[in-house]
Write a structure and sequence with these properties.
Chain lengths: 364, 566
């Protein structure tokens, strides 16, 4: 399994050699990496995801950067070791490995995560390819599909029927590249909250609607985004997102699922679901369904302003700007579960069926 | 009632109010006595332009009694003046003239004699000789407290091997403690600001300390000046008018005051609507008041300032170096200024860092006309000036209206023809706005130097920290590269060497900014520190302690500056 001369390994070596030669020439070495921020992405409807622009961040070795510089090289060395040994380390484990680096150790995990993201971006690959995996869970699945995985011991094929978890669910693993799927479902419903997911699972909504239910659990992880993308691509399934009706659900959860994030700009191409559409809860839903609401807070207004002004995705879509402005004027937000006002199963019997009839009216 | 009323004698008054003169505690009494005697000796020597060599001996006689002996090589005192100078309060020459001197009022040494007499009943023993050809006169003196007149117990001629000089011996009640307000400290600080003096001091433990002369030139002799019109008050003006020999008011002003010419005198008279030719004796109270107002309204040149001889920034700094093992010294002398018609000069010197404690308030050494002031710091104009200076801009911490915190010693000196003290015991300088302002300016001037030193030091500190930081992480860079590229240990070494030169190429030079202090003298610095003095670690001893009590006869009037140290 050892990928001796994997392109990543070659790339790692090249970067280190460049540094080495600079040093031998008594010049200040540099490590270049793309700037990972919303200001360095553009949205293009044809590609359907946040694409990296040319801005680079150079980590030059100076007196004040010497620590981070050393840590970056250390992290690269660790990555090399992992790839060569065909091993993996979780982000947390990498953080603990750094405890061997004496003064260069990380004090808190966010520091090591940031350096790891830097190395990942430098290599222009996703972190699994440089040997690091997140420890976060990908999300839960229930519905009309079979996941085909392999047994870790003997490599035999495992068929996981996602209709057979009863009131439980299948968990998306942190690495989804090796999975294959079989399904007859007609669409994928991505749900923001675990509570709503539970309700729909309990009443076998997936059977009634012939769909696959996925719980996002807040902002979807990379694995979750990749899973949905693969599934949707391979079986040409539409993806509908059912989230809360607030600026965070629109601008962070849905936006990240659909087009990726600024932070992961170098890998968005594969880690987003451009075919996703927003089912609800929209600001108009709040009016149409007379939902109970909460007033928007200052942070919500700020988020709306910021999205309209700075988010390339929102800037591209007039419909979203309109929806956000509408919310801003209404000064209220509503949760998915507010639908329970009309009865616990109103969402299954009325709201979702009604909505799914008018897919064209979904927000982009 | 009326029958029991009578005049109160000056000596009587002070015998009851000894605290006014600095005799409020036994410890202070000892200090005050030495201070008065030494100050007189120094004034006398300087006036006669003799480089002073002063012996001070304090002998513990048991049960809180001490014998104080102060002997100088001054000009001596003519025979007939000896009793008055030592045994009559408010008698002296310095009160009447405006010249920079240590003594002012003429109370000092006679007050010590009075105190000795009150506490032990013993007379003062004086011996004085004015030249090798004159006999030395020996007196035993007491004070008649009611009449404020000397009582001569003994008056004889003695053999004294000294060419000229004066020696006083007093027995008094006292208490010997070390510490910042001790006579040890006083003598040491005197040596600091009077580098032309040799002081030989034998303390009550019979340990001899020698403060040798550091410079061979005496400060320029104090020049006497006439009062400046701006400083004169109504009563004084009237007294002067009565006493003058001038034929007219105009010539009175010209003769009795400095900076007044005929033109200015005429202007003053015109402003008061008085004929310049009026006889001084004809000026009544109302006219005098008009004259005062006219003086204030007339433009008069500031008084001459060449009569002031400051210590000088260089010597002040040198003195501090001897006393304090610090890392940075600086000092400045301000140009002369005037308060109430009296010219004065302020000087300030700093010793920063080194062994001084960083979390304590700064120490202040105060001097007036080269005399150390050890008591009542809080009431002194200098403390006010220190507290009202903004020290934060010079890198020290300070809470509103209090002394700054930091490893700093401040020496502050006022030299003036008349130093305004808050009381007769001459412990604190009065709060004249002009004086406080000058003090603050002096502190600021030196403070700026200190500030730039401290910020330089901080920069260097940051720099060396940064260097440590670089040195810490360089091995990690080379280790990681070695792991990725798999090069040899010698390559790793090369990489580290290169990295050091790359990273330090752009950095400023690291240098030690502290001053080198070769003047510091540990033994000297220890004097007067610690409450009971940490005895016998190697003070030098020398077996000379002029004890020859021989005498000769007097010559001329050479009583120069003797007596008014108060």
């Amino acid at each position: 399994m050892a990928k001796q001369q994997s392109p990543v390994l070659v790339n790692l070596r090249e970067k280190a050699e460049a540094v080495y030669h600079k040093i031998l020439k008594k010049q200040q070495p540099e490590l270049d990496m793309p700037l990972r921020a919303l200001s360095n992405v553009k949205y293009d409807d044809r590609g359907g995801y946040f694409e990296l622009m040319g801005k680079k961040k150079a980590r030059t070795l100076t007196a004040s950067t010497v620590k981070t510089f050393a840590q970056t090289l250390r992290m690269m060395a660790l990555s090399k070791e992992l790839i060569e040994g065909d091993d993996i380390a979780t982000k947390r484990e990498a953080y603990y490995v750094s405890k061997n680096w004496d003064e260069a150790r990380f004090n808190e995990q966010p520091e090591s995560d940031a350096i790891m993201d830097d190395v990942e971006a430098m290599m222009m690959v996703n972190r699994e390819q440089i040997g690091f995996i997140p420890e976060e869970k990908g999300g839960d699945i229930a519905g009309q599909m079979i996941v085909i995985d392999r047994d870790a011991d003997n490599g035999k094929e495992l068929r996981i029927d996602c209709t057979k978890f009863g009131s439980g669910a299948y968990s998306i693993p942190s690495s989804v590249e090796g999975l294959r799927f079989e399904t007859n479902a007609t669409f994928i419903l991505a749900i923001e909250t675990a509570g709503m997911f539970q309700r729909l699972v309990k009443h076998n909504y997936w059977k009634k609607a012939n769909c696959i239910l996925i719980s996002l659990g807040g902002v979807p992880t990379r694995a979750c985004r990749r899973f949905i993308r693969k599934l949707s691509d391979e079986h040409k399934l539409p993806v509908y997102v059912f989230a809360d009706g607030d600026p965070y659900a629109y601008g962070s959860i849905y936006r990240t699922l659909k087009v990726g994030s600024g932070n992961a700009a170098h890998i968005n191409q594969f880690f987003c679901v451009p075919q996703a559409k927003f089912l609800g809860v929209t600001p108009q839903d709040i009016i149409d369904y007379k939902l109970p609401t909460h007033p928007l807070k200052d942070v919500d207004f700020k988020k709306i302003k910021d999205l309209i002004k700075n988010d390339p995705f929102i800037i591209h879509h007039k419909e979203w700007q309109k929806a956000l402005l509408q919310m801003s004027t209404m000064k209220v937000r509503a949760e998915q579960q507010a639908l329970a006002k009309w009865g616990l199963n109103y969402v299954i019997e009325k709201y979702l069926p009604d909505k799914i009839k008018k897919v064209d009216g979904f927000l982009p | 009632m009326a029958k029991r009323q009578r005049e109160i004698g000056v000596a009587e008054f002070f015998s009851r109010n000894r605290h006014l003169l600095g005799f409020d505690s036994k410890r202070k009494a000892l200090l005050t006595t030495i201070k008065e005697a030494v100050d007189n000796s120094l004034d006398a020597c300087e006036e006669a332009e003799i480089l002073p060599e002063i012996h001070v001996e304090v002998i513990d006689m048991g049960s809180d009694r001490f014998r104080v002996i102060v002997e100088d090589n001054g000009p001596g005192i003519v025979k007939k003046q000896i009793p008055n100078i030592f045994a009559r309060l408010l008698y002296g020459s310095k009160f009447f003239k405006l010249a920079q001197s240590r003594g002012q009022q003429g109370i000092g040494i006679s007050a010590s004699v009075l105190y000795a007499q009150l506490t032990t009943g013993k007379p003062a023993r004086i011996i004085s000789k004015i030249s090798p050809n004159d006999p030395a006169h020996y007196y035993e003196l007491k004070i008649d407290t009611q009449k404020n007149q000397p009582l001569i117990m003994t008056d004889e001629v003695k053999e004294w091997s000294k060419e000229h000089g004066t020696r006083i011996e007093l027995d008094l009640e006292g208490s010997y403690l070390g510490g910042s307000q001790s006579m040890d400290q006083y003598l040491k600080q005197t040596a600091i600001v009077n580098p032309h003096v040799t002081l030989i001091y034998t303390n009550p433990k019979a340990e001899q300390l020698i403060f040798p002369r550091a410079v061979e030139t005496a400060p320029p002799k104090a020049v006497e000046i006439k009062p400046h019109p701006y400083g004169v008050e109504l009563g004084t003006l009237m007294d002067l008018l009565r006493a003058t020999k001038a034929p007219s008011v105009q010539s009175f002003f010209v003769n009795e005051f400095s900076r007044v010419g005929h033109g200015t005198a005429k202007q003053i008279c015109q402003g008061a609507a008085i004929l310049p030719s009026t006889k001084p004796a004809e000026i009544n109270r109302d006219m005098a008041e008009k004259l005062i107002k006219s003086i204030q309204a007339t433009k008069i040149v500031a008084p001459p300032t060449d009569c002031i001889s400051p210590i000088g920034a260089e010597l002040l700094e040198k003195g501090l170096k001897k006393e304090i093992n610090a890392e940075f010294y600086c000092a400045a002398t301000r140009p002369p200024n005037v308060y109430r018609g009296n010219p004065f000069v302020i000087e300030a010197g700093f010793a920063y860092g080194g062994e001084q404690l960083a979390d304590k308030s700064v120490s202040i050494y105060r001097f007036a006309n080269r005399v150390p002031l050890l008591y009542q710091q809080g009431a002194c104009a200098s403390a006010k000036a220190v507290m009202s200076t903004n020290w934060r801009s010079y890198g020290l911490s300070q809470s509103q209206g209090s002394l700054p915190i930091g490893p700093l010693t401040i020496a502050i000196h006022i030299a003036s023809v008349w130093v305004p003290f808050t009381s007769e015991s001459k412990e604190a300088i009065a709060h004249y706005p002009e004086i406080i302002r000058e003090m603050r300016l002096a502190l600021q001037e030196v403070g700026r130097q200190l500030g730039s030193y401290i910020s330089k030091k901080r920069r260097m500190h940051a720099e060396s920290k940064k260097r440590d930081y670089i040195q810490t992480y360089i091995p990690h860079v080379s280790d990681a590269l070695k792991e990725i590229l798999g090069f040899s240990d010698s390559d790793k070494e090369t990489v580290e060497k290169m990295l050091v030169s790359i990273l330090e190429k752009h950095r400023g030079e690291l240098k030690d900014v502290a001053m080198e202090n070769t003047e510091y003298n540990e033994e000297f610095a220890r004097i007067g520190k610690g409450k009971t003095s940490d005895d016998d670690d190697g003070e030098e001893r020398s077996a000379d302690n002029g004890n020859g009590e021989d005498c000769k006869a007097p010559d001329k009037k050479k009583n120069a500056g003797y007596q008014q140290t108060l």
